[in-house]
UniProtKB/TrEMBL annotation:
Keywords associated with the record: ATP-binding, Kinase, Nucleotide-binding, Serine/threonine-protein kinase, Transferase
UniProt GO molecular function: ATP binding
Keyword Nucleotide-binding: yes
Domain Histidine kinase/HSP90-like ATPase: 12-126
Pfam families: HATPase_c_2
Coiled-coil boundaries: none
Name assigned to this protein: ATP-binding protein
Length: 133
């Protein structure tokens, strides 16, 4: 059983994709915690592809097997590997915290595995294994 969705718009379309993914995961018996985790990762990666990578569309696939939900996102935006790069250090206090810039940390923290490839067709492909609990 595989989930497929084409995001061809901004934040509203990403939200629709999240809702569709949530319904699909719930029908497959995933817990609310697992669904929420997948929604957060989908939102972060899809919006980054659009806002920072210039992607006009993001193709999303998901599958569930052996305790994992694997999300695959593909886009033709600028190359960006979310598996590399230094993440910001946590703020010393809430008052010192800055807004934004923590999305990739959320993706990495929630993922059991995170893989990136730039395909021969000039597409970014991000695969995220999310534990089901």
């Amino acid at each position: 059983m595989t989930f497929r969705y084409r995001i061809a718009g901004g934040a509203a379309e990403v939200s629709a994709a999240q809702s569709a993914l949530a319904a699909w995961m719930e029908a497959a018996g995933a817990s609310l915690h697992s669904v929420t985790r997948a929604e957060v990762v989908l939102e972060e990666l899809a919006l980054n592809a659009q806002r920072h990578g210039g992607a006009l569309e993001v193709l999303v696939e998901a599958s569930i097997a052996v305790g994992l939900c694997t999300l695959v996102l593909e886009d033709a935006g600028r190359p960006f590997d979310p598996t590399v790069g230094v993440l910001p250090l946590p703020a010393a206090s809430l008052g010192a915290a800055r807004i934004g810039g923590l999305g990739l940390a959320l993706v990495r923290r929630n993922a059991a595995a995170l893989r990136y490839t730039r395909t021969g067709m000039g597409r970014n492909r991000v695969e995220v294994d999310l534990p089901l609990c």
